[in-house]
Amino acid sequence: FAGSFQDAGVIQCAYNLNLPLHAVPASSAQCPAWSAFSLSSPAVVLETVKQASPLGKREDRPEAVVVRLYEAHGSTVVTWLQTSLPVKEAMLCDLLEQPAAKGHLPVEQQGMKLSFTPFQVISILLVLRQ
């Protein structure tokens, strides 16, 4: 590739090669395009979306989802995480999915504002409306 790996989109190409999309036959009914999440910066990768584990205080909250993101370009960056899911509450959490002491994230119309340092991993616990 020419230029830097960031400009060449190497990380996205690697994901496309190693985790290709699989086509599944479906009905011919027209369905609108839909995406559960989007990010405003290509430097941040949304690596994982999963139901919150039944650990500790979260075991009675099956409506909780964890998203894990990381900064992949070695830069300091601010990005917006947008979701079409009905988020009631968002908070930073540790890798055991326990909420951080001062980890409440405001959910604004444009999403949740996240600040990353180089190669930082951030986990967010999203509590969804029923």
UniProtKB/TrEMBL annotation:
Name the record gives this protein: MA2C1 mannosidase
Membrane spanning residue stretches: none
Species whose genome carries this gene: Odontophorus gujanensis (marbled wood quail)
Glycosyl hydrolases family 38 C-terminal domain boundaries: 44-123
Entry-linked SUPFAM superfamilies: Galactose mutarotase-like
Molecular function terms from GO: alpha-mannosidase activity; carbohydrate binding
One example of a Gene Ontology biological process annotation: oligosaccharide catabolic process
InterPro entries cross-referenced by the UniProt entry: Gal_mutarotase_sf_dom, GH38_C
